[in-house]
Amino acid sequence: MLTSGNSSSQPVSFILLGIPGLENSQFWIAFPFCAMYVMAIVGNITVLHIIKTDHTLHEPMYLFLAMLAITDLVLSSSTQPKMLAIFWFHAHKIEYHACLIQVFFIHAFSSVESGVLMTMALDRYVAICFPLRHSSVLTPSVVGTLGAVVMLRGLLWVSPFCFMVSRMPFCPNRVIPQSYCEHMAVLKLVCADTRINRAYGLFVAFSVVGFDMIVISISYMMIMRTVLGLPSGEARLKAFGTCASHICVILAFYIPALFTFLTHRFGHHVPRVVHIMLANLYLLVPPMLNPIIYGVRTKQIRDRVIQGCCGKDS
Length: 314
Fold this sequence. Notes:
mainly alpha; about 75% helix
């Protein structure tokens, strides 16, 4: 199953344990995970279909939402099929290169998701603070450029993770006590000095998430100042309503992401089962919730879903 040899050998595969401590319950735990994954797939594909087929929704807000849906599909699909195979079929083995590919997709598209949330905050800022210039500032070409920059940032910033790890020797123990391959979990199996890798990981985390959160915070500070200056209470309520969905999505993504990141590095007293369960949910709950939040809160999408259901019934 694993290669034999000294610590300098490159492993053929790793073993993913799933959720250590809950081995006897993993079969049943898989059912709610599977249900959430199906909801994430169906919800995000529905959002993409509605935005693609309704030309009135080809506006910056919905184009960014489409980017978010694509990112959520990739992020959830990078872990859930293998996780369900572990829980249901005891398929604990993962090939070495497949593990590195999983590391790449998880971290790259987590970065992309953070970037998309940041661009959505900029869209809300321009829409509320400069409503007359919104369409001229955020043209389709500008939206496409922002999406491309966010994607390239994720790919370029995360690629060195896999490159550096692939050139390092591994210890004989190649068991990963998690449900998927994550950078820090793989790094703990390396039999060499990993300070550069850890430092680079911190740099990427703070440069990506730190920058995005600063931009989001500044955008919403400017939005708050503009909204509170509106003369009508109804206008203020409507303006806040347009931001509510985005704020919910931001909280659903950043809170578990930050908790997972911090416990991996500093949370030595956090029970392992708690950390692993939250790490699993972090890559599944936001993709599941995002289409629900926007479907409920966004009238155009909600109306299209209702029309589709009524059309099928008739």
